[in-house]
Amino acid sequence: MKRALVVVDMIEDFVHQDGALYCGPSMQRITPVIQHELARARGAGELVVYLTDNHLPDDAEFQVFPPHAIVGTKGAAIVPEVAPRAGEIVIPKRRYSGFFGTDLDITLRERDVGVIRLVGDCTNICVLYTAADARNLGYAVEVVAEGVTSFDEEAHRDALRELEKTLGAKIVHA
Ligand code: ZN
User: How far is the CA of 119 from the centre of ligand 1 (A)?
Assistant: First the structure.
């Protein structure tokens, strides 16, 4: 069973301090971990997939969170620190889960991927709900503990516990 590295929402609006919905200083801590994971996955010939928030200007999510990652804006772009290489897959999404209304599932299945390894943000939002859908669809899930974070440290810790204890994800280290 092949494994894919799935990089969640490493976009300008979340990663950089001047972004529309800055996720906080812990983004600086996870960035080198994600760079390390990218180097490892690329070296091992593993599939690399990027999920990116990509909202309509009046997206329903903005009833819950301030506007961010609007289609076509700089804020929705992947940060250069972890930029995709030619041929790597970028899947835009409008919901927390990278599987909802996207072709992530068929993209993985077509390549015989059975295990996804998650890094990025936020642990308690897009990482958690992407992992939940992955488990519902039968994928094994790994979450790199030092490679995920949230603006809410307590929610981050709760989500890691939920990922492990309820969803059966494997919490791994880079
Ligand atoms: Zn969003």
Answer: 16
Which tokens in the block code for residue 163? 């990922």
Picking from 56, 69, 55, 59, the residue whose alpha carbon sits closest to that of residue 21 is 69
pLDDT of residue 4: 98
- Tell how far the Cα of 44 is from the centroid of ligand 1, in angstroms: 31
DSSP state of 131: H
The full set of domains in the chain, from first to last, is: 2-172 (3.40.50.850)
Q: Are 119 and 146 in contact (CB under 8 A)?
A: no
Q: Would you say the pTM of this structure is higher than 0.85?
A: yes
Task: In whole angstroms, give the CA distance from residue 119 to residue 98.
Answer: 13
Distance 56 CA to ligand 1 centre (A): 10
What is the predicted pLDDT for the residue at 174? Answer: 87
Residues of the chain below pLDDT 70: none
DSSP 20: T
Q: Find the 53 Cα to ligand 1 centroid distance in Å.
A: 5
